[in-house]
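Example (one chain per record):
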Amino acid sequence: MRYADDIRVFVKSKRAAQRVLVQASKVLESDLRLRVNREKSVINPASVATLLGFGFYFTKTGVKIKIAAKAFTRMKQRIKKLTSRKWSVSMEYRIEQLNRYVRGWMGYFRLSQTPKKFAETDKWFRRRMRQVLWKQWKKPRTRVANLRRLGIRPDLAYQWGMSSRAYWRIAGSPVLQRALPNQYWVDVDLILFRDAWDRFQRPSEPPYARPARTVV
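Predicted structure:
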């Protein structure tokens, strides 16, 4: 290989790992004339080992792939930035930027085998989007009108539209979840993580009908 700086070797026991680490270091340094970073060359259980943003977990059927904790945290930080209430952009532009990021991120991590975690992430993601929309509606009268337009009873629309509760609490309320259900976000073309993962599991079909730049 012309370039390789990150190698993982999996063996059955710690004793075998110690032996392999010595042997591998000898081959790399003596035969291939590469320098091994002794500080970063460590022996760890496979359950905490990571590789290029991926991790591993164990089931009755064998070892499966997950996303490393640090990579998942970075993703959530990026989503928080793109769904910040302080970012004054149109909803259409915000969704465009979110879709670009989610599509690219999931394209890289499509090998992960954690669909339930993506579904849980989507719940948090939709709540952040409801929070943004609630902020954009601004005036109480606008909120009442929009809630009624989205099918909420007049009395509940007035009660919640006039509420002074915090954005995050309103975003998680049953009323706003009913007004802005999962289908609402599908209809406005927001790409969610679980849906993106599902699409990438069908290689015979193009992941998305409309072409877009990929940003990871």
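Caption: The first helix runs from residue 14 to 31.
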